[in-house]
What does this fold into?
Amino acid sequence: MPGDLSRLLNALGLIAVDTVLALAFVDQLWFRDLPCPLCILQRVAFFAAGFGLALTLVFGPRPSQYGVTILGAAVGAAISLRQMLIHIVPGSPGYGNAIFGMHLYTWAFIAFALMIIGCAILLLDDRQFARSEPWSNRLSVLPLTAFAVFFVLAIGNVISTILICGAGFCPEAPAGYLIFNDNLRLTELAQSL
Amino acid sequence: MMSLPFLLFACGLGAAWLRQRGAAMGFWVAGLVVLLVLFRVHMNDVLNIAL
It folds into this structure.
């Protein structure tokens, strides 16, 4: 497999990660399904895993970057598995909305497993690492879009997490945007004085 | 605190864009360490169910 094909496959993989993270935002903003702390950590793990794909777009394929993706996905799989085990108790409704019969953390576990398998398959071909000349600094439209959307989603998650959790740790089952609730309490306090 | 790993990964992406691969990897390692610490903190979150 030539390096250019490897780069294209990494761009497609990063677009898939972008789509997952964007859908998480849709679920949060449109369906008002606020993420729990473990849900937020799974989003973080998607960034940890997608980071390796993004590095490949910029620097070309390297084995260490697949290692980055595999390690990030392994941590993400552990977090989503932990959340599945929390809700495995009979009678537990699970956390958040179910999509096609499975909760988001179950889908996340499947996505992390697919990322690990995908990287293992890509690592089977050594020819992608054999390029002698340096990679071009200019990215084509598809990798550039995937990289830019990934960066924007990271910034969006910084803002969203601050709004939900404030500066500290998140509540176990968030009922609203903490920062707005605090402002509301301050407004009520000011009105009562 | 929970937004810190997102911020570290965003900084890492910025470093990668500026072709600073070492710095990008450093930000990624820092983000992963923070993620593991936060996972440890939230690992034993209780489940509120009425049986």
